[in-house]
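User: Predict Prepilin-type N-terminal cleavage/methylation domain-containing protein's structure from this.
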Amino acid sequence: MPCRRVPGPTRPPAGFTLIELMVAMLLGLIVIAGVASVFLANQRTYRTNQALGDVQDGSRIAFELLARDIRNAGLNPCNNGDRMGNVLNNSGTDWWANWSNAVHGYSGSQGDPATGGVFGTGVGQRVAGTDSMQVLGAVDGGMSVATDNEPAANFKLNDKTTNLQSGDIVIVCDPDHAVLVQISNYNNSNVTFVHNTGNAVNPGNCSKGLGYPSDCSSTNGNLYQFGANSQIAKLGAADWYVGNNPVGGRSLYRVALAAPDAKENVSLGTPQEMVRNVNGMVINYHARGGTAFVTASSIGNWAVVDAAQITLTLQSADQRAGTDTRPLVRSFTATTTVRNRVN
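Assistant:
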């Protein structure tokens, strides 16, 4: 009879010891920690890069907007801004009516008449220690004179336009000179505007005479007749500064000459927030014949300023974008020339 092997007693299945389990858990935690650290590092890098991109985009937009106004400062359609007459009643009181200061800056310690005060903490008010700059130039051009009837103070245009209305401040020019004047009445049906004296509009004109230099000693002082195809453009005036924004931060603001109101009065409009999270602005200027850029307080004659060097300090909207879990802050510098003041 064949022999059979008698099975021995059965043994329970083997398991992990406590030490083995603890080692396994430790290794698992190390792997998880490594994955988490890589994820967090990538997330922080992404947030930092995104914040840097936002700051750079903000600087590009700010410099582009600023450059448009600076390049056109003191420019009129005939490019003879050095021979500019001015018959506005407020030419000696309001900055936006004074063509002599087509470019004018204010350092961080100087008050700016366009901001309504020196400094403030309210929304739209200028931040202490930051520079500001005002610029004047022609906008919305392309209009021209058909006939000029003087001393009737009556211009007939070559073409109809919806860009003009009673109360607008305009620049009229020919090869001889240009003049700042306010439209006292505009008739779109026969394309005619009047530049009479009186109180029909505000600030109004001191004289009907549009010759150079201006003569406000009489109603018809220094009469001049502009020839056919003389150019017409509206006056553009703007002031740039850093102000307090509605969310408790700072932004780049622009306040500009507003369209005439219902009573045909002209004044500055409401300050507009242009670029958010601009914390600071420093502006230095180059004067013709100078060898360096200097502060606004060092400029004695603004008529010879031919370039502006602007440094903007911007902060990221993400308050934890930096490696120190604080906002990312960067400064950028750009230089812009005043086109009609360089050769």
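The chain has a mean pLDDT of 91.
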